[in-house]
Design brief:
This protein has four helices and ten strands; from the N terminus they run ααβββαβββββαββ. By secondary structure, the protein is of the alpha+beta class. The N terminus is likely disordered.
Length: about 190
């Protein structure tokens, strides 16, 4: 049985065999997806710190990496530093970390030139459901009469297709936000 399938025993309650509400099953699937996403992000971070060689161990603690530290605001695609300069945020990191416009990031540019990002100030979030669209060479989710851009990395990660129902995360206090993070493909 695959991890996406739920056995009939698992969907029955102890009180008499009735099925769990569909919302609970969807929520459980979402929690499992979140755990898998977090695990993948942790593995990616570990590889960025010690490389692909499992025997390699970096002597410095990750928070003690020597280099230049810059704090900035995520704009949906890149981090904007206090000097107005744009710093590239890897799309897979932004996607898996579900970064949204307004999140505060810390960038450490290590002495070896590597970029290490850490989310240090997430903004208040809310979730809405919309429909995945594609036009002008980009992906959007139409929700509540608005279109929000989403990262291609998120679309491919969730194996979403145009027309799919998508749960997205948007800033709670920024009604002008142009970007959203994909929470899940429904």
């Amino acid at each position: 049985m695959s991890e996406n399938e739920v056995s009939s025993d698992a969907t029955n309650t102890a009180s008499g065999g009735t099925s769990l509400p569909e919302k609970q099953v969807k929520r459980l699937k979402s929690l499992i997806q979140d755990a898998e996403t977090n695990l993948a992000a942790a593995k990616e971070l570990l590889i960025s710190l010690v490389g692909d060689d499992d025997s390699a161990v970096r002597s410095a603690h990750p928070d003690e990496v020597a280099g230049k530290v810059i704090e900035g605001v995520f704009d949906g695609q890149v981090m904007i530093g206090p000097d107005g300069k744009s710093y590239p945020v890897p799309a897979n990191y932004a996607s898996k970390s579900k970064l949204i416009e307004g999140d505060i990031l810390k960038l450490t540019i290590a002495d070896d030139g590597s970029f290490i990002y850490k989310q240090i100030g997430p903004v208040a979030r809310r979730q809405i459901i919309g429909t995945l669209l594609q036009h002008d060479g980009a992906y959007y989710v139409e929700a509540g009469g608005r279109e929000y851009r989403v990262l291609l990395a998120s679309v491919t990660y969730f194996k979403a297709k145009t027309g799919d129902q998508i749960s997205i995360i948007i800033p709670e206090d920024n009604r002008e936000a142009e970007w959203a993070a994909i929470e899940a493909a429904l």
